Amino acid sequence: MQMAVRAHHLAKPLFRDAETRHVATQLLRAASSVAANYRAACLGRSRREFVAKIGTVREEADETVFWLSFMERVAIVPSGGAREAAAELQDEARQLARIFAASYRTARKKLVERRRARRAAKRESAGGDTPSPVTA
Predict the structure, then answer these.
(1) In total, how many domains does the chain have?
(2) Which residues of 44-79 are buried (b: 16+ CB within 10 A; e: fewer)?
């Protein structure tokens, strides 16, 4: 949430100019989506839903990094103080993207492991390691 608020403060002056409005909108959408989807992931009804939402959070954090990098490359950020704020925000977004990518990998790995364990247990209870017949 804090990153989204900081992105809002950075983007707000950019809405005044038609040339920078699109970038400001994209930055604000991506940064606020990180917060909203993380909240949704925490409220997920299942592990699969959590993994899917964390994947979205990872993507949105990376998109936030993209828009901040884009702003830097095309020199959209106007003043010295705002440039420092943008650099700090970009660093924070990169860190969050790495954290959510690691979280996604771990959650996905555990989901796959649990699925495999359930399938193995099901095969054992069905009478051995014989695969079930294929139906056409």
Answers:
(1) 1
(2) eeeeeebbbbbbbbbbbbbbbbbbbeebeeeebbee
